[in-house]
Amino acid sequence: MQTDEAPPLVSMRQIVKRFGQFVANDQINLDLAAGEIHALLGENGAGKSTLVKILNGLLQPDAGEIYWQGEQVLLKSPRDASEVGISMVFQQFSLFENLTVAENINAAFTEHDTHGFGVRALADRIIEIGEDYDLNLDPNRPVHTLSTGERQRIEIVRALLRHPKLLILDEPTSVLTPQEAEDLFLTLEKLASGGCGILYISHKLHEVRRLCSKASILRNGRLVATCDPKSTETVEMASLMVGSSVPELRAPALHKIGDIRLHVEALSLPSQDIHGTDLHHINLDVHGGEIVGIAGIAGNGQSELFAALSGERLAQEPRHICIDTLPAGLLDIESRRALGAVFIPEERLGHAAVPDMRLSDNLLLSRHGTDNLIHGGLIDIRRSHRLAHDVVLQFDVRSASKNPYARHLSGGNLQKFIMGREILAEPGVMVVNQPTWGVDAGAATAIRQALIDLAAAGTAVLLISQDLDELFDLSDRMAVIYAGRLSQTLPIQNLTREMVGMMMAGSEVDHAA
Amino acid sequence: MDISQSVIMTIMTAATPLLLAALGELIVERSGVLNLGLEGMMATAAACGFAMAIVSGSTTVGVLCAVLSAMALAGLFGFVTLSLGANQVASGLALTIFGLGLSGLIGAGFVGTSRPPLEPLFIEGLTDLPGFGKIIFGQDFFVYTSWILILAILIFLHLTRAGLTLRCIGENHHSAHAIGLPVLKTRFRAVLFGGACAGLAGAYLSLVYTPFWSPGMTAGRGWIALSLVVFAAWRAERVLLGALLFGGATVLQLHAQAASLGLPSQLLSAVPYLATLIALVFMSLGRKSGTVTPGSLGQPFVPER
């Protein structure tokens, strides 16, 4: 490894990682210099997370070497990684809800790390770092009272207190508003200019172009390209990630906007969960033929609103929720389905589908009452098989066997199945929460197209999402949910990303605009 | 010794086995493990402790053997649930059934035996510690230990790094693992500690409370200790309160039985259990802010490799 130049900060060589038959990382090479902001790009399942878990000591590679400043290192645990100077900020935060900010940070340190600053001094250090990098935090607040953006700050401060030479961030902006994301970028640039290397995992190309000076692109566990994102076309990077050109959405056929099919009026519902969000006086109309989007950062009442609309929790009075003008606020899920509504929750495995049931049984879950599938208490198994097969064919659900268990499908294919199951029920109203979360680009496009076509056929679609691109692509009108309150619904033409971003962060926007 | 002092003494005597077992279980549950085998561990420890005390003629040996036997059972539970990732509820129930059976086997030869009257129930040295009067604090080794345990647990949980680590692991083992905390090692230690405490509780029953062995002498105290932990919201000081309440009700019903109020004695015997449960339910109804259940309680943790 002797060269004239200084060795890179970290070098991964021929990294291989297998899970059973599946090769998650196949001979991957990666070099990252000090002060460089390096993007790791790829679809879900491309092997990004596996690679950084190896770099962080959480997983052991089956083959390959890691060199740190030119010296070979073995990273057997996150402790080993942090000792050489590698810190990681996870996509799913490693936080403890009932502990304070300071306790959360303290927990990640050993006695050895805190040598020189005790628990009390730690609070001062947290405030100090906060001032240096614009990461303000109150050390004594319990975590469950904090917003997602603030929680992420804890993770970053926790990482920075170790004085890392390499900081790894896994999809850090997926939980942030556009403004919060920009603040994060400024912090990262400040860090990099101080000589810290940054490995930035993302699948959002515009962010990578904004922030990173180098990008490594993974696909199906292999490194397919390394490029300069600032000089490479977005379309080119996208097709490298996906492996083929990304299909575009077709505009809907010309159709009329019909009557109100979903009407929500003054819906208020206190949360049952101590960490949940109360719903306050929500008003909303969705007409047949339109898609109404609801934007918002996770945890602002989306799951509570979904539960109230689907009937998992009942409203206080029938008139608070009307489906096709019929008061439905006190009806259970099955009765609401009988009125022609369908509901697709955010969590695919466990909420929308049962992992250990076959697709034909999963079809029964939501359609047992409406499709003539039960006769005298007995299931018409041939019919459920046929209907499941219809979904598989029409929605291009790919799997190894004909009627697989739900858990054997990839996220994208399972979501296509769930969408298909509800769409073939020919709903009048659809409420869908995060339909393309964690789904590969091809499946996401197919799902979005299905929603557009469904609305064009006269269904009222309510789309709850945290993906602003998706909301702007699909919605006819949009509202923002913040702290359990829903903003006015505005036509998409009257909205900009900046306005929506500010509303997501809780500031009032002049609706007269 | 006047009457009120003797009443306090009896209340504490009745409360101590519950307190010991519940404090151990509190640490186990705070680490995220639910060990329902408390009753079984206590029964085995009671039988083992009594048998070994008879055989060796030494209370100290008896107590040691009681603690070790309960720890051995806890170790078995830890191996099955932590190393093998088995279901904690099923394993805990199996442990109770196994422990009760084992205690019958161990104690079979000792039914009807009572301890030689010469054998002191007090551990010499601790009773004579300066600064503590014999009447209130000089009760016996077990009461004394239980009081130290409460203090030690409060300090451990809230002021030490190891305590913080334990709370983190109990609250969210995935996060704890991700930031490099030793989940399984910490839990195994907690389970062993819980076993040791259950062992002390069992030894107390057969060596102090009623100094003989009879099958089923734990009489559901393991289950009461388990519910104490839940209703006390996983807080040591509330466990103490609940245990004293149980002790108080026990003494009260004994007096009621002696005064022959005409109520069936079976009903009166049930009073301490009922009173404790009711009081604890009200206590847990009263708490409002913050969920306190350890987030990972009862969930097996299997790290990916």
Instruction: Categorize the overall geometry of chain B.
Output: globular
Give the overall pLDDT of chain B as a whole number: 83
Total domains of chain A, how many?
2
Strand content of chain B: under 5%
N- to C-terminal separation of chain A?
61 Å
Structure, described:
The complex is a heterodimer of chains A (513) and B (305). Chain A is α/β, with parallel strands linked by helices and 513 residues long. Chain A folds into 2 domains: 10-242, Rossmann fold, CATH 3.40.50.300; 260-504, Rossmann fold, CATH 3.40.50. Chain A contains 16 helices and 23 strands. In chain A, β21 and β22 form a beta hairpin. Chain A starts with 9 loop residues before the first strand and ends in a 9-residue tail after the last helix. By secondary structure, chain B is mainly alpha-helical. Chain B has a single domain, classed as Orthogonal Bundle (ABC transporter involved in vitamin B12 uptake, BtuC), CATH 1.10.3470. Chain B is globular, with a radius of gyration of 19 Å.
Structure characteristics:
heterodimer, A: 513 residues, alpha/beta, Rossmann fold, 2 domains, seven-stranded mixed sheet, six-stranded mixed sheet, globular, B: 305 residues, mainly alpha, ABC transporter involved in vitamin B12 uptake, BtuC, 11 helices
Question: What's this, in brief?
Answer:
With 513 residues, chain A is α/β, with parallel strands linked by helices. Chain A has 16 helices and 23 strands.
Which helices and strands appear, and what pairs or packs with what?
The complex is a heterodimer of chains A (513) and B (305).
Chain A: E1 10-19, E2 22-32, E3 37-41, H1 48-55, E4 63-68, E5 71-73, H2 78-84, E6 86-89, H3 101-107, H4 119-133, H5 148-160, E7 166-170, H6 178-193, E8 197-202, H7 205-211, E9 214-219, E10 222-227, H8 234-242, E11 260-269, E12 279-287, E13 291-295, H9 302-310, E14 321-323, E15 326-327, H10 333-338, E16 341-344, H11 359-367, E17 374-375, E18 378-379, H12 381-394, H13 411-423, E19 429-433, H14 441-456, E20 460-464, H15 468-474, E21 477-482, E22 485-486, E23 490-491, H16 497-504
Parallel strand pairs in A: 3-8, 3-9, 6-7, 7-8, 13-20, 13-21, 16-19, 19-20
Antiparallel strand pairs in A: 1-2, 1-4, 4-5, 9-10, 11-12, 11-14, 14-15, 17-18, 21-22, 21-23
Helix pairs in contact in A: 3-5, 11-12, 11-13, 12-13, 13-14
Chain B: H1 3-30, H2 38-56, H3 59-83, H4 88-107, H5 141-159, H6 161-171, H7 173-178, H8 183-209, H9 221-231, H10 236-258, H11 265-286
Helix pairs in contact in B: 1-5, 1-8, 1-9, 1-10, 2-3, 2-4, 2-8, 2-9, 3-4, 3-8, 5-6, 9-10, 9-11, 10-11
